[in-house]
Amino acid sequence: MRRREFLKGTLIASGAFAMTTVIPHKSMAASTYLDGIIYSKNNEGMWNGKSASHVPVIEINGNSVKVTTNHVMTQEHYIVRHTLVSQIGEVIGDKTFSPKDEKAISTFELPKGYKGILYATSFCNRHDLWLAETNI
Ligand SMILES: [Fe+2]
Fold this sequence. Notes:
This protein is mostly beta strands. The protein has one helix at 3-20; strands at 38-39, 57-61, 64-69, 79-86, 91-96, 104-109, 117-124, 128-135.
């Protein structure tokens, strides 16, 4: 199976996973069972040296969450999508980007009174899926 076809299938499966499965209440970025599928600051895998430009940055301001990926946005190489997911696997929001977008920035509103872990993902068309998390 070609790598891109595998990754496409993996993303579809991970999207279904995020929407239907309860994620254990623990740090996903610290786990290693998704090595080679999801990358993070401490798990760059085959993309060694790429975390600074791919790991999404999460900023909380009251009920608002801003997710930024400090990455180029060109036709050939860009951030395709952000998602924000609760600690129980509920998708709080998502944003799909165009290579014409100037920056990969998305904002989401948290459910009222939300407390717990927040997961943000950033998908690069060349460097796969990256995860960051924070606890609020
Ligand atoms: Fe990239």
